[in-house]
Design a protein that fits this description.
Blueprint lengths: L1 E3 L4 E2 H9 L5 H5 L12 H22 L1
Antiparallel strand pairs: 1-2
Helix pairs in contact: 1-3
The structure holds FE2/S2 (inorganic) cluster (FES).
FE2/S2 (inorganic) cluster binds next to loops.
C-alpha cells in the first residue's frame, strides 16, 4: 500500500529499507524520500519501521 502519497512510496519499500539496516525515520530518509514533503505520512512510516524491527527480532529469538 502507498504510505507516502507525495513521493509514491509504499510500505514494502520502507520494510526493505529496514532490512537493509535503516532503523529510524531519518535513516530511512537517507534511502527514500518518505515524509519529506507534507509530512502527513511520518507517523505511519514510523509505525511500519517499528513493526518491521520488532518482527525481525522475533525471528532472531525463534532461532536462538
Ligand atoms: S504523504 Fe509523505 S510527505 Fe506527503
Amino acid at each position: 500500500m502507498y504510505v507516502c502519497l507525495c513521493n509514491g512510496i509504499t510500505d514494502r519499500q520502507i520494510r526493505d529499507s529496514v532490512h537493509r539496516g535503516a532503523d529510524s525515520l531519518p535513516a530511512i530518509q537517507c534511502q527514500l524520500p518518505v515524509a519529506t514533503c507534507c509530512g502527513a505520512c511520518a507517523e505511519v512510516a514510523r509505525e511500519i519501521i517499528e513493526n518491521e524491527r520488532s518482527s525481525s527480532h522475533q525471528c532472531c529469538r525463534a532461532a536462538a
